[in-house]
Specification:
single chain, mainly alpha, hpI Integrase, Chain A, 3-stranded antiparallel beta sheet, two-stranded antiparallel sheet, 5 strands, 50% helix, 12% strand
């Protein structure tokens, strides 16, 4: 059975995996920040749990972790999933598909609770592992979708600056420090490359 039929939050899991967005950024994303025709989205806010002593917890929006907005390009399949998600949301209630509506919200259009959102992912992973076999799928955390996005891109040689822009790090230096172990180049590669350049220069 397709993953989309297994979880109502399949569009959210897909978006997080395909963009490297943080949980809070996805939960604060509104349709006005998504341009499906241009295949881009703008990350401007982040939602999180705020706890005040004596008043309990509430969900509030603030700026992104870096303090700066960013634009992320989307692939065609993710665009198609978001189009279908907006259509389905509008089918439940027109207000859920308005430009000012949250992309991922409850039936009343309110923010999803970040911690329950994470537990939903854990439940979906557990259900998938049970269905396809525990050996076929490792136990992964929601945040691992972000790490996987960065790791695969860097391992395939995508420039650190580009990956840093997608992740929303304050600078490429942070990305390099966190993911230096997955960069494909090694000292051996560097030694061989430099030697070939020197030999090539001497041949002229």
């Amino acid at each position: 059975m397709p993953a989309a039929e297994q979880s109502r939050l399949h569009p959210a899991w897909t978006l997080l995996a395909m963009t490297g967005m943080r949980r809070g950024e996805a939960l604060a994303l509104r349709w006005r920040n998504v341009d499906l025709d241009a295949a881009t989205l703008s990350v401007r806010r982040s939602a999180g749990v705020v706890r005040v002593k004596g008043e309990g917890a509430s969900i509030a929006e603030g700026g992104t972790k870096s303090g700066k907005p960013r634009v992320i390009d989307l692939d065609a399949s993710t665009v198609a999933i978001l189009r279908a998600h907006r259509k389905a949301s509008g089918g439940m209630a027109l207000q859920l598909a308005r430009d000012d509506a949250l992309v991922f919200a409850d039936q009343e259009g309110r923010h999803l609770h970040p911690e329950r959102f994470t537990r939903s992912f854990q439940d979906d992973v557990a259900r998938c592992r049970k269905a396809i076999g525990e050996d076929a799928l490792p136990v992964i955390r929601l945040h691992d979708l972000r790490h996987t996005h960065a790791t695969l891109l860097l391992a395939k040689g995508v420039p650190v600056k580009v990956v840093s822009e997608r992740l929303g790090h304050a600078s490429p230096t942070i990305t390099f420090q966190v993911y230096a172990h997955v960069l494909p180049a090694s000292q051996r590669d560097a030694a061989e490359l430099f030697a070939s350049l020197v030999k090539g220069g001497n041949a002229r």
